[in-house]
Every structure is written in structure tokens, then in C-alpha cells.
Amino acid sequence: MAEPRDETRTRYDEVAQLYYETFKDTLREHPFDRAMIDAFAERVKEGGARPVADIGCGPGHITGYLHALGLDAQGIDLSPEMIALARREHPGIAFSLGDMSALDLPDGGLGGVLSRASIIHTPPERIGPVFAEFHRVLAPGGFLSLSFQASDRTDRLAWPFDHRVAPAWQWSYDRVADLLRDTGFAEVARLVGAPEEDPVRGFHFCHLVMRKPGAENP
């Protein structure tokens, strides 16, 4: 049986160009998403503007937006075809292949990690190492921006749903926040979109901004 990671890589390789055409203007179409990313970028710059990694960057449209906001942004994705598209569309930005549960990044080197709708393809029993990696690569005082298809239920951590590309999970936003706190993060802000705003599945969409505490912000 194929690993979920391998299936996700293969499926996104197959639809990379279609995905790019579908979502390249997503921030223009979703002003609340844009506002949360803007706030994340502002907080990172206030902390000294260390580099930022967009984990699960796909074709690089969000990485490009972070770069346009003045951040030293790089993108990392599991799919070679997505990385090829990102390099084509954003030639001045560094993009590399990588697995979010085992990032090829040094300890404490980043001022920010952004992961937009990327954890949804991680099975719930494997999410712990992903959050631990996000914490490891962030400098003290660094920020995590995490967004995902969500639920207001708390009886489970996650529920599978019929994603069009690869196996995916909808996450309890309260329980995800609890897991991140257990990993060592402090919550800074959250925004939860109403399910009525999702015309396809009727899911909440959650944005969490977390901080890795440092000496100046315990």
C-alpha cells in the first residue's frame, strides 16, 4: 500500500497546472485570508524580518505574495511539478522539494512559517511531528500562520473528507490549537470563517497565528 505522502505527491504532480490556474488569484478573492497573512507578515517584520518559509507552497502564489510584502520568503513543497511551476512563475524566489515532517532547515533559523491548507493531507496520527518541525525551525519569538478546513466540534481531532485531489482531513480548530500549545506555541490570534462562506462543502476555514515564545515573550 502506498504511503499517504507518496499518493499526495503523485496526485498533485498530475494536477499542478490546473491547480495553479484555479488558485493563482485566491487572495484577491478572499480578503479575510489576505488580512491574516498581512498581519502575520507585519508581526514577522516587527521581530527582525528573519526568513520565512511557506510550507506546502504549491505553485508559489502565496510565497510570491509574502515576497511582495517585503519578506525574505522561500517555498517548500512535496510535489516536483508544483516546485517547477513555482520556479517558472517566481524566478527570483527560492523553491525546494521537502517534507513538512522532516524539513531540511536549521534549528531556529526562521522568523516565520506559513502553512496554508497543507496539513489537511497529513493523517491525524502523524500531525505531531509536523508541528514539532514547525516549532524546531522557528527562532524564539517567531510566528506560525496555519490555515486549514476546520470544524467547531471537539469530540475528535479530524474527519476525512472528499477532497478532489488526495486524501484529506477537516480539523477541529480548538483541538489543533491545543496540540500546538502542547508543542510549545502560544496562540496570538485566530479567525474562523463561517461555513456559509464555503459554497462547496460548507466547512469552517480557520486561520491560527501562533508564536514560539522567547525570553521577551514567554
TrEMBL record:
Keyword Transmembrane helix: no
Pfam family for this entry, one: Methyltransf_25
Keyword Zinc: no
Boundaries of every Methyltransferase domain copy: 52-142
GO biological process: methylation
Gene Ontology molecular function: methyltransferase activity
Domain of life: Bacteria
Keywords: Methyltransferase, Transferase
Record-linked PANTHER family: METHYLTRANSFERASE, RHODANESE DOMAIN-CONTAINING PROTEIN
Name used for this protein in its record: Methyltransferase family protein
UniProt source species: Glycomyces artemisiae
